[in-house]
Specification:
single chain, alpha/beta, about 20% strand
Length: about 260
Amino acid sequence: MGTAVGVNQSDVASEVLIDLTSSTQVKDDPTTVYAVGDIHGRLDLLDAMESRIAADIASSGSERPLICYLGDYIDRGPHSAQVLERLSAASEGQPSRVFLKGNHEDRMINFLVDPVTHGPAWMNFGGREALESYGVTPPVEIDEPTLMDLRDQLDRAVPSAHKTFLDQLALSFRWRGYLLVHAGLNPGRPMEAQAARDLMWIREPFLSSTRDWGCKIVHGHVIVEEPVFRPNRIGIDTGAYASGRLTCLAISTSGERVLQVASD
């Protein structure tokens, strides 16, 4: 049975620990899971990948496919708002879908709550491109009153469906011998006491860890030229916004396969 774990924003702020051994069940046990890497505002690559996955489902004859998007839908690329529109509209369709929260969604949510604290970093983190996709143009020089005004403009511009989508993002999805998260896990903590922030933000010591988690971790977050396969983890963020390549890992009882799409 596939299972997903979610958390509300107040939990993230207070660093509540997440038990990854106990999760909310999804409706059906998938026969194939398609893990899609970081999209970062590349609607063209999202469209191409969803077509590629649809063709793969048709050719493989998978009875109960599920697509798990690993987060970082927004920022850096030109179409953050359009990507969220597409994904939020697709959440009720077929095949089944699970949407994870990345650190960029976490940053946008925090900006809407406290723009003065979180705005400066977000502006240098892809937030400018996200704002522009919603029709909000930030000036070159930004002070505290400007950050407050940009937050107010963005709050008015973001549709309620997008806010609901962001609020309902999960932190992890577990399927058989795999655990899917955006960034990784903290090897200094047990599986039943992982910090929500680490699942979205961690790099080291996760990347260099050789810990046996009892399952294989599938993640994005850290850009690699090609998917990285290690005994305990698989990294699939191939830097779509800059490289023009979006990667998906197809997992089934037959093994693991890499699907990729690229812009012209």
